[in-house]
Amino acid sequence: MEATKFKIGDHCTYALWTDRHAGYIVDVSKSGTKVTFQRGNAVRTDSNGMSECQSYDVSPNPNGFTTEFSLRTRKNGDTFWKRVGTPSKERGDVLFAGHREYYDYSF
Predict the structure, then answer these.
(1) Above 90 in pLDDT, residue 94?
(2) The dihedral of CA 43, 45, 49, 54: what is its sign?
(3) 14, pLDDT greater than 80
(4) Which band of pLDDT confidence, cut at 50, 70 and 90, is reported for residue 17?
(5) Helix (H, G, I), strand (E, B) or coil at 37
(6) Dihedral sign for Cα atoms in the order 81, 86, 89, 91
(7) Distance in angstroms (rounded) separating the CA atoms of residues 78 and 37
(8) Angstrom distance (rounded) from CA 67 to CA 25
């Protein structure tokens, strides 16, 4: 499976272990193999408390946390985005297209 080719302004999700942080792409290298993620403002819009059913409104945050991701390739040829400085085999620290904010209360 081919990883998303991001462009500046694209919505994305930084997946840690089970938690997810919604944000935006704020920089793309000329080669297209590195991107910079910036966490957005995520405001919870439901009233479900500590539950699996969560909804958020996400907007850009110019002062949000930033981190860099690089495009990596698995042995089977699939590509994925992994946070720079983390081993490819380590779970989490990956980037996906689309917004998804989620907090796992079970940990």
Answers:
(1) yes
(2) negative
(3) yes
(4) confident
(5) strand
(6) negative
(7) 21
(8) 10
